[in-house]
Amino acid sequence: MASDTTNRVEDAQTQIARLREQVETLMKDRITPAVAEAAGRAESAVYGAAGTVREQMENVSGRVRDQPMLALLIAAAVGFVLGRATR
User: Fold this and answer.
1) SS3 letters for the chain?
2) Is the model's pLDDT at 1 over the cut of 80?
3) In which band, very low, low, confident or very high, does the pLDDT at 78 lie, cut at 50, 70 and 90?
């Protein structure tokens, strides 16, 4: 009886070790590359968005330089509307 229990424990340990190896292989072969690819795509999206924001800031800055009075009037109007809305 003790021999049977020992064999079952050893069999369970062997199966656990085999499963652990399979999980490690799966992580190495499939999960890690997928996560790295997703991170690369996210990084590209962030850089693309940052470039777009930079371009828009330059466009707005150029318009403010070209028409400073209009920019002041727009800023005042926005400030007035926000001031009224927060009361």
Assistant:
1) CHHHHHHHHHHHHHHHHHHHHHHHHHHHHHHHHHHHHHHHHHHHHHHHHHHHHHHHHHHHHHHHHHCHHHHHHHHHHHHHHHHHHCC
2) no
3) very high
User: What's 35's DSSP letter?
Assistant: H
Task: Give the pTM.
Answer: 0.49
What residue has token string 């926000």?
82
First to last CA, the chain: 83
Which sequence spans correspond to the domains of the chain? 2-85
Tokens (6 digits) for 39: 């991170």
Give the pLDDT confidence of 23-37 residue by residue, as tens digits: 999 888 888 888 999
Q: Inter-axis angle of helices 32-66 and 68-85, to 10 degrees? A: 110
